[in-house]
Design brief:
Chain lengths: 146, 396
Amino acid sequence: MAFKTESEMVEAIKRNEQLHKLMMSGKTLMQEEMSGLFGIPDLIFVKKNSKKRISYAYEAKLSNWSRALTQAFRYKAFVNKSFVILDHDHINPALSNTDKFCKANVGLISIDDSGNVQCYYNPYYEAPYSPRLENKFNEKISSLKF
Amino acid sequence: MTFEIYHQLGHRDKWSIDSYQQDGTGDGVIISPRSRKKANVESLSQSVKSRAIFDPQFFNPNAVIKKMDSYDFYPDTLMPGGFDTGRFPNYCSIVADNCVDFQIKNNFRYLVIPTRYFDGAPDVEQFVQNQETNFVTPFLDSRDHHTPKKDAILQLVLTGHMLRNKPFIEYLLTWITGIEGIKGIYLITEIVPRGPQITDATILLNLMNFIHILHKNKMIVVLGYLNSESLLFSLANPSIVTIGSFGNLRIFNSTMFEETDPGEIRVPTYKIYSPVLLDWIDAPYVDLMKNRSLVHDKFFGDNKYLDTMFSQGYNGSAQSIEPYKHYFVEISKQLQEIRSLTGANRYARVIEIIQTAIDEYSRINESGIEIGRQGAFTTQFATAANLFARDQGWRT
């Protein structure tokens, strides 16, 4: 069954265990709709352990992979890994274009309303491409608690 | 035929006036009463006013927005109980007299006969009748009682529906070219939905043909609210093209003249105009393009404002002055180069500029920078330019 709304989908993503397994283990910080940067990601996670800290951005969309890809690419200005999460019922058009996700190094995931997650492309770690926005992002999360 | 470059004024219009006067980025300005009080228009220097066009902005007669309440000619202010379509014919002469008086006293370059905004594609006969009764006749009558006599230009707002409707456009052209006492048209288009540039080749071509027919009829054609379409439309021989700072001065939006709650104002990241890409690029992408060696010498032009933006520690925002002054310098350089050419030579240069943009967007896409639909307008520009050139006999 497809999700009815994006907010329903975001709620499912927030509590999804499988999704957390795709991220580095460690302390977690989560923030919804962080604004004032470059676009507004639906979800931000920052994972921290004794060795490393990695930031993740997620753009959830019921459909329209192309728009989601453009948005997720923006978030790479300030996070290390950015993902598009689509409703599993509408994943096929995106799967025909996985080369675009690979080229842009943006992750592609689908989720269904039972919480099943599939990852089709897991991007490699990159430094954010805008040092100015990276600093701004760091300032924003420094006031939040893990 | 050459053309002039005017600044479309609005919010923070001092930036545009300074740019025009100090950086030589234009030949005049179009004044917006929405953004400048009557007293501050009157106090502009005569050298600015004599080259200026005053846009009365009657688009929405039901509302008097922002600084417009400092003027005495808006129907909603002037009519007891506010504007009412049925009663307006009783007041249109007073409205016209006050508006003409203001324009003549300030010695602006032309007398602008304003227009009301109509959505979609109304019945063309009713549309013309309304303009004629409420604006053209009273304004021309009033002009006859004023000295000095100024050339009158008629404002028109055309929607995408109108521009796609051939009989509508033909009827309009017949009407316009037959009005005695009108020297030209101040043309504004509202295409909905749209991105920063008009991306519909049919609309672009129809607009170019519309401009060209007016030119052939020896009419002045002023094109308001333009983005880099100005480069394309130059092929049709307009008299004046406009450049504007903020997006709402490059894309006409009739809702700007409605009384609405602006809601939460988001301050986006700043953008930098690229004369190669013919569009404004979000600053974070500029960082990335530089890192991936996509930015060559000409990519963002060359001026002191760009030097500031590219200097270490520059902390600009969408409210900073540099991106806009940079844009004025670079777009006016392009337009000044193009206006020195005519006919087939102008077309050859314009299509070369568009083709370069197409190639550069391909390079960006191939590098993995995902900028979405940005750049999609370039192929539409090329199509419209080529079809127009074929009709002119500039290409086979």
